[in-house]
Structures are given as C-alpha cells and as structure tokens.
Amino acid sequence: MKNTTLPLVINFHATAVCNFGCQGCYSKWHNHQSEAWNSPSNVRKVIENIARFHRDHFGESAAPWRLSIVGGEPALFKDKIQFVAQTAHAYGAEVSVISNGSHLENIFPFARLLSQVGVSLDSFSHETNLKIGRHCHGKTLGYEEIASKLAALRAINPKIRIKVNTVVNQNNYSEFLVDKVSALGASKYKILRQVPFGCCKGVTDEQFYTFLRNNYREDLFVSSDAPSRHIFVEDNSAMMGSYLMIAPDGRLFQNGQAEYRYSHPLMSTPFEVAMKEVGFAEDKFFNRYTSVATDATIAKMKIASAA
Ligand code: SF4
Questions:
Q1: Which atom of ligand 1 approaches the CA of 134 most closely?
Q2: Shortest-distance atom of ligand 1 to CA 24
C-alpha cells in the first residue's frame, strides 16, 4: 500500500438479507447462519484485524480508515448494526452505512457516530421502483419519505454527510434524478453502471450515456463550503477489482473475475494476507476516490454524443 492521503475504505457486507428484491442484486449469499455479525467476538476480530493493518501500514498520521456497513439491508437489524458501528468507532474507524433507506430510522440511535450515510436510490417513481424490484410487498420509497428521514438524521447529527448512489439500469436510464438528489442535501452523488449479473444484462453504452447526459449536473450541487466535485461516475471497468469488500461470513472478496474470489476468513487471517489472496488492485481502488474514472467516462460520453 503506497497511498497514505486517501482513506482506506472497506465495505462490510454484514448481511445478505434484504427487504427489497432488485433485479441484478449481487447480494446473493444464502447462508445467513454463517454471517459473522451473529457473533460479537467475530465482529471484534475482523475489526481488530483491519485496525492493526491500518496502524502498521499507514501509521498514526494517515487518514483514518473507514468501515462502510452495507448489505443486503443492514438497517433491518438494529442491534447488530449498532454493535458493528460502535466497535469500529472504538477502534478508530470512521463509520458509514449504506442503506436502501426503507429502515433508516434504525440507525438514528447511533447516528452521532456516523460520518456518512449512503442511500441507494435508483428512481423516485413508484412504477419504476416496482419494475426494478425496489419494493417490499408493493411498498416503495418515495421522495417525501426519504427526504423526511434524512432531515431527521441531520437533526441528530448535523455533520453527517449524505451520499446517494444510483445504479443505471434498463428501467431508469431515461429518468432525471439529479435535481431531487441535490435537494436531499447530498454532498456526493455516485452514478454506477449496472454490472451484468445472472439474468441481468446491464445497460448499453447509449443507455448509460443518456442517463449521464441528463444527470451529470455538477452545477446543481454548488455551495461555498463543499468540495468542488460532487458527482462520481463508475463504469463497469472501474468497478471491477477496485473495492475492498468483506462478505457476510467474514472473508475478503473481489469482483474482478467471472466469479468472486475469496480470501480465508478475516477472523483468523491477517488482512494483508487476505488482500493478496483476492488480488487487490491498489491503483484502481484509489482512483475511485479521485476524479480519474469519472473524467474518463464523461469524456467517452461527450465523444459518443458528438458522433
Ligand atoms: S436494495 Fe440493495 S441489497 Fe436490497 S435487493 Fe436491492 S440491490 Fe440488493
């Protein structure tokens, strides 16, 4: 690991359980009994392992590492998610949660510990969300509901950063979302191209660029105290092999190959060994936190639009 200025961000897929059923969802681990967060001792071992790695490799002056608790839908399990957040915070991590927003109120009791909350929002249309599978027994999450939950979250923790993720797919590629994303107070908007997975074929270049043409609107995010770039774009190639992800059972994994590549469990395998086992790509990882991948994709979109 060479870079010491950007934070080491690790996505902990704490559970595969979700109340939505999105097409193309890659959270398909089925053995919920083996989820590491069922055992507080396993949670401590995994977090201790990462904290030791961070201290040994980056030193005390490096940017803090960040544990992003993701799923499935981790906010369905309020006691477990709170324990993970408190433990990571106690070990010096910044803690963030990525949620589909449906049970965001379950993170309110420990919201003061969080530096960021990410909400995955692929549409504000009830019909589109039904088509995508972003619903629980026909109930979808509308703009007013998520706006109200985020306002309540900010009332508890005024410093919390709000991030919105949108996966561009066959059902939403022609929609305009960015004005509402901005109105939610998001300081970061990440636009991801759906990765073909199982029966889901993803989107064509033209569909992806249509979404970018309509929604790549940095001007809607301008404010005096915010960073200059708010919108980050990830095409499929930028997403492959560029995340540090922990599966629910505590193994590090990577998505760069046809099938996931797994390490041995982090409860018993040093983090640096696990990174080698999955073939972690450092340059790609840190590019996600700069403008490199976004600039390249926007340049391609402009060339395609001019042709
Ligand atoms: S909300 Fe996320 S975890 Fe749940 S089904 Fe959709 S993509 Fe999968």
A1: 6
A2: 7
